[in-house]
From TrEMBL:
Name the UniProt record assigns to this protein: N-acetyl-gamma-glutamyl-phosphate reductase
Gene: argC
Leader peptide range in chain numbering: none
Biological processes per GO annotation: L-arginine biosynthetic process
Entry keyword Amino-acid biosynthesis: yes
Compartments it resides in: Cytoplasm
Function: Catalyzes the NADPH-dependent reduction of N-acetyl-5-glutamyl phosphate to yield N-acetyl-L-glutamate 5-semialdehyde.
EC number: 1.2.1.38
Amino acid sequence: MTIRVFIDGAVGTTGLEIRDRLIDRSDITLVTLPDALRKDAAARADALNAADAVVLCLPDDAARDAVAMVQNPTVRIVDASTAHRTADRWTYGFAELEPGRTTELASAKRISNPGCYPTGFLALVRPLVRAGLLPADRTVAVAATSGYSGGGKDMIAAFEDPAAKGATNTGYRLYALGLGHKHVREMQQHGGLARAPIFLPAVARSYRGMLVEVPLALDDLAPGTTAAHVRDALAEAYDGSRLVSLATELPAVLDIERTARTDRLELFAYDDPAAGQIRLIAALDNLGKGAAGAAVQNLNLACGLPETEGLRL
Ligand SMILES: NC(=O)C1=CN([C@@H]2O[C@H](COP(=O)(O)OP(=O)(O)OC[C@H]3O[C@@H](n4cnc5c(N)ncnc54)[C@H](OP(=O)(O)O)[C@@H]3O)[C@@H](O)[C@H]2O)C=CC1
Ligand SMILES: CC(=O)N[C@@H](CCC(=O)OP(=O)(O)O)C(=O)O
């Protein structure tokens, strides 16, 4: 027997990526709606309730509407949008983030897929907070650059089509300059931080890929903390993971495309012992572990399928 999976929003940027990872699988029957019906409320309600599992690849409001349409109590929902990432009664779908999370996901009916930037940030910061190396009351800065597919089809058009709304020739752009960004609350809550991180996002003229950086001064960490303690905490947190790893060799440069087209999340801990400074970096694909890869991983876990089936290792 196969698992029936409906992708709501299957022709969007994230939806297409998830479809690519599921289409050839023999353990899954993929359900999508024809173009004429993909926004039809009745057709969506039928598909949402007939599925074993649904993946929502929609803007936030449409994702909330879809959740409200689900009446069948057996349906598992993986929501790729921001709508439920800090909501009660939803399991945050970052399997590697906390001990026991994989087990929780296996019985979860409502799973919120993490944001792309929070995936990099939390992978670096959460193990340090949990180990008591980074005091929870610190204000942490996080600078990050995304490939332009991170903004969905409208941003892709703006970077690729001179006639599109907001068309741009830029190679690199800072945004969210007023500091508020929809990911800040998610980063604070799941990081276990008392204060909101200072988030400095940017977008580059590269289709996919992401680098997320967290600079730390040893002076700001728990007394006696060294770079070796930080590395040990990160290595231990992801020991045995097939998707998340701490690099044992530190390249001289890191390109934004480093893990593009994979679902891997690579972590790096550079340091300058003389200055007492650490530069933590996460490299991921915004459409991989930052979206579709994590969604498929969550789907696998929730449906009792092998965790990394269909993923790009
Ligand atoms: N792009 C990325 O890197 C990441 C995206 N996400 C999240 O995934 C979600 C989807 O993003 P993304 O794929 O980039 O966005 P896109 O804009 O590329 O795709 C969204 C899709 O949803 C469709 N849609 C909109 N409203 C409805 C509706 N009421 N009913 C059915 N379909 C609808 C759109 O159709 P139409 O174009 O016809 O309106 C479009 O096909 C967002 O919530 C985003 O935050 C998460 C992590 C990373
Ligand atoms: C480059 C770019 O614009 N990125 C988006 C974030 C990606 C996204 O919408 O995804 P999630 O919130 O679901 O992770 C932004 O900053 O709003």
